[in-house]
Design brief:
It comes from Actinoallomurus spadix. The chain contains no helices and nine strands. The protein is an all-beta fold. The chain has a single domain, classed as Rieske [2Fe-2S] iron-sulphur domain (Rieske Iron-sulfur Protein). The protein has a three-stranded antiparallel sheet, with no helix packed on it. β5 and β6 form a beta hairpin. It is globular and about 45 Å long. The chain binds FE2/S2 (inorganic) cluster (FES).
């Protein structure tokens, strides 16, 4: 990936689906890397789109979805990051807030598995 810095996060087997890992490259930027499934990872900036709380201090859970009123279940393939400050939910894949109360979103970064390493390009 040209123009971006390559950061090795960890070995792929070190992150289970639903697991997260915080990166602090250079000690300034904070990037939260998460494993969504056996073969999908995501990386978002560690700042909540609501008021900048640390997403890494919260939890990651499967998103509640429903096909009809009063029916709900946890999605197999959608995850939310829940902020510890006000429980705002951010889509872990897109960085977008689940409830659109403003136009903010958490920045996302490309992630790949290369030779068994999880790698983020920032
Ligand atoms: S700062 Fe994250 S929910 Fe308010």
């Amino acid at each position: 990936m040209t123009g971006r810095r390559r950061l090795v996060v960890c070995r792929a087997e070190e992150l289970r689906p639903g697991g997260t890992k915080l990166l602090t490259p250079g000690g300034r930027r904070r990037i939260l890397v998460a494993r969504l499934s056996d073969d999908e990872y995501t990386a978002v900036t560690d700042y909540c789109p609501h008021q900048g709380g640390p997403l890494s201090g919260g939890s990651m859970e499967r998103m509640w979805v429903g096909d009809d009123y009063y029916e709900h279940r946890q999605a197999e393939d959608r995850w939310v990051l829940i902020c510890p400050y006000h429980n705002f939910e951010t889509d872990a894949r897109t960085g977008c807030p689940v409830l659109r109360i403003n136009r903010s979103r958490a920045a996302t970064y490309p992630v790949a598995v290369e030779d068994g390493d999880v790698v983020v390009y920032v």
